[in-house]
């Protein structure tokens, strides 16, 4: 498997639009079955509201936005250096402004920030992809393309300007320097477990009971939704700017989450699910954590050579 110019793994979870916001918040898996075996015992939830700073057990194995940014910066630097050996100038691809949720937990259980609800409704403020201009990117071609990516299925050996191209090009060389595995960034396994726990807990008895209480609270305030994820995807709230109705709905949504402690209940349930999943996959997760640490150390060495 090649590492790719910017690595498929690196880019796979980057939110590309509003429809991707929730997907980005819960990992890159969309269809998951409930974990095998018995459900974890019902936990005693703390009273919680805002979710942005909460941390799930699986996050030890996932890359945060800041960590991913460090790896990406190092990758771009290494590709640039490699291209110079061929007498070519590679312009690193800009990461662009941050868009989407502020953390793994931000918007995972829907909107939970009362201040943001009053200001932007379900929109994402300065992190909303609808407000960001997409930078024009000219795809490499000719010699540059060969140097950057090699040829499909090749093992290196071709020459450009008299210099041998490494296997999978400069992108492959950079990836091998940054990782002992075949991927950069969060592993498929860690992302899959992150998505599995989210999907499974949506069907958990405690969480479903919290949904019911939240839905009744919303109905009392004049809004009809079955759960807090459905309200976020209301087609009336997908425009360029938030509307008065959207803001009123969002404010009620956050208030009802607080009244029924939906975040506290859901988070406590999901923590137990993840602990169970991690215990079952510990053998395979050990090298995942090792490679994450390796990538971050390698990236730090490239980004801070002094």
Give structural notes.
The protein is mainly alpha-helical. It has helices spanning 8-11, 21-26, 65-84, 114-120, 142-149, 169-178, 188-201, 205-220, 228-232, 244-260, 262-280, 282-303, and strands at 159-160, 163-164. It has a two-stranded antiparallel ribbon with strand order 1-2. Helix 3 crosses helix 12 (282-303). It is globular. The two termini are 33 Å apart.
Key features?
globular, 306 residues, mainly alpha, two-stranded antiparallel ribbon
* Shape, per Cα inertia axes: globular
Helix count from the secondary structure assignment: 12
Q: For the terminal residues, how far apart are their CA atoms?
A: 33 Å
> Percent of residues in beta strands?
under 5%
Output the radius of gyration: 22 Å
List how many beta strands DSSP finds: 2
Which ranges are low-confidence, i.e. pLDDT below 50, for 5 or more consecutive residues? 1-24, 28-37
